[in-house]
Amino acid sequence: MRHLIDPLDFGMQETEAVLDLADRIAANQDAYIDAAKNRKLATLFYEPSTRTRLSFEAAMLNLGGKTLGFPAADVSSASKGETIADTIRVVGRYVDIVAMRHPKEGAPLRASMFSPVPVINAGDGGHNHPSQTLIDLDTIRQRKGRLHHLTIGFCGDLKFGRPVHSLTKILTRYEGNKYVFISPEELKIPKYLEEDFLAPSHAEWYETQDLEDILPKLDVLYMTRVQKERFFNEEDYIRLKDTYTLTEDKLESAKHDMPVLHPLPRVGEISMDVDDDPRAAYFDQVQNGIFVRMALIMALLGICDPVMGKEVLLHEC
Amino acid sequence: MNVDSIQNGIVIDHITEGMGLRLYQMLELDKGEKSGSVALLQSLKSGKYGRKDLIKIEGEAIPPRISILGYIDPQITVNMIRDGRIIRKESTVLPKRLVNVIRCTNPRCITSTEAGCDHIFNLTHSGRYRCIYCNAEFHSAASK
Lengths: 317, 144
Ligand SMILES: [Zn+2]
Description:
- The complex is a heterodimer.
- By secondary structure, chain A is α/β, with parallel strands linked by helices.
- Chain A has helices at 12-27, 50-62, 75-78, 84-91, 107-114, 130-144, 162-171, 191-198, 211-214, 234-241, 248-251, 282-301, and strands spanning 40-45, 66-69, 97-102, 119-124, 151-155, 178-182, 204-208, 220-223, 260-261.
- In chain A, strands 7-6-5-8-9 form a five-stranded parallel β-sheet, covered by helices on one side. Chain A has a four-stranded parallel β-sheet with strand order 2-1-3-4, sandwiched between helices.
- In chain A, helix 4 (84-91) packs across helix 5 and helix 6 packs across helix 12 (282-301).
- Chain A starts with 11 loop residues before the first helix and ends in a 16-residue tail after the last helix.
- By secondary structure, chain B is mainly beta.
- Chain B has helices at residues 20-26, 69-72, and strands at 9-16, 38-46, 50-58, 77-82, 85-91, 97-99, 120-123, 129-131.
- Chain B is elongated.
- In chain B, the strands form two sheets. Chain B has a five-stranded antiparallel β-sheet, covered by helices on one side. A three-stranded antiparallel β-sheet of chain B has the order 6-7-8, with no helix packed on it.
- Chain A binds chain B through residues 83-85, 102-107, 109-110, 124-127, 192, 195-196, 200, and chain B through 106, 108-117, 124-126, 130-137.
- Residues 104, 106, 109, 111, 131, 133-134, 136 of chain B line the site of zinc ion (ZN).
């Protein structure tokens, strides 16, 4: 049985097979309305994340399946003292697949070790959120037509920004990508990302503090939240905030086909005037999110693609 | 001092003096079925290291946790003995995975709250150990 806990759990081909399926779903949604008929998804959200939960539930409903879950407020009573291992052994008997969000890092991995059904990590603390990573990949592929030989700029809080770490890891599987990490000194990417991923893959990367300077060279720009509480003092925050805010003016110097991604919600890193720019891709990401999650559910459940007549991961129909 | 040399078994040699008992416990030699006798020798004279500890395990079974030796003390050597002769002399290597040898101290990690959760670490490219749950790197300040 397969799970999706870490963005690297699927091989390159598997990952692209899921993205291909997401694209086929997007092109022909009607063909998939019964794909997961009579299947049930449990959304086990131990912390509130309405956006992610609704996205998973909408994905399952679009496939003709059903969903059940508990509102985050009830978590403490629903699971008082019970281990993740026990909860999943119980819930896994009610449903066919589980999407789990948990404030503790590694909780979904723990669940997958005991689960009788596939588990999707829907975010574990500040750690992994692999379906978000697949959505980012899907959006880049849509806009650029490829995932290799790209110069990708990551801007903002690169130290704590989980989506940046995950996307970087998965992109290092592809040839010829270059990485530009744009952040204030105190929010640079963690060392392990260099030592365990960038260096072993012989990737080219460099770090800078200046977004405007580098903008004309980028093929893709990934913006992240810069949160006030990450800074040591208010002055630094106010000084740096504007440097890492993308405006329509700044975009002037960027390539005309450079998509701007952001995992959302934003807190002012992208000014509203960018929203109407054709390069703004962050609302595409939301739409792609549904299709990618539909594809993911089908892949993990081993459901035949009604259009292609075969399963997406590993097995033949 | 001398303990009878063994015909078949394993001699774990060059253990840092004073570490023998901890190793004995970590290898869980005090648990499970014993196929032969086990001897822990402490503070033996050794030309190379001054004094050392040594463990002799009689029998053909290899302790399942033997691979953790490389993590605990890289200067240890493991001698396999068959019919009274050393057939293999191995320096230890860092094991790929450590189960309940070191503990994750990240308060945001599931290991901090989940009852009965093994602490499992994998060896990375850069020769460090990371918790499989939270990927936190283990800093061995406490163990050295
Ligand atoms: Zn941990």
